[in-house]
Amino acid sequence: MKYFGTDGIRGQVNSGNINGDMFFKFGLAAGKYFTNLKKRKQTAIIAKDTRLSGYALEPALVSGLASAGMHVYTLGPLPTNGLAMLTKSMNANLGIMITASHNLFYDNGLKLFGPDGLKLSDKIQKKN
């Protein structure tokens, strides 16, 4: 099943793929992918915009990542470009932005960044 569009996933919260259960599963899948790379320390950092739903979705995402063995840092509300920069400067394997960008307030979603601070490649997203 395809979850990711051209720039992450987005949709209405608690409808379709934007809910706590799916965020846990996304975290677990991403965590397993990166821990299977056998790098010394697997690290994910998470930031979000100020949508209230981000505060409900973030713990599920953290749980999935931690269940797969990743070290997770939550940074709170940040601009997306700030998370991209910090993903690279903190040497994180993965940066995850919880946001729906310009969508309406009842939407939310995820954007994924690789260790270089750039959008995670489509090839890696399809593996998850």
Question: Could you please describe the fold and organization of this structure?
Answer:
- This protein has helices at 20-35, 52-67, 80-89, 122-127; strands at 9-12, 43-48, 71-77, 94-98, 107-113.
- The protein has a single domain (11-116), classed as Alpha-D-Glucose-1,6-Bisphosphate, Chain A, domain 3 (3-Layer(aba) Sandwich).
- Strand 2 (43-48), helix 2 (52-67) and strand 3 (71-77) form a beta-alpha-beta unit.
- Helix 1 packs parallel to helix 2.
- It has a 5-stranded mixed beta sheet, sandwiched between helices.
- The chain is 38% helix and 23% strand.
- The radius of gyration is 13 Å and the shape is globular.
- With 128 residues, the chain is of the alpha/beta class.
- It is built from 4 helices and 5 strands, in the order E-H-E-H-E-H-E-E-H.
- Residues 1-5 have low confidence and may be disordered.
Query: What is the strand content?
Result: 15-25%
C-alpha Rg (nearest Å): 13 Å
Q: Shape, please?
A: globular
The topology string of helices and strands comes to EHEHEHEEH
**CATH fold naming:** Alpha-D-Glucose-1,6-Bisphosphate, Chain A, domain 3
**Largest sheet report:** 5 strands, mixed
Number of helices: 4
Q: Terminal Cα separation, in Å? A: 10 Å
The name of the CATH superfamily reads: Alpha-D-Glucose-1,6-Bisphosphate, subunit A, domain 3
The main sheet orders its strands as 1-5-4-2-3
Structural class call reads alpha/beta
The count of domains is: 1
| pLDDT averaged residue by residue | 89
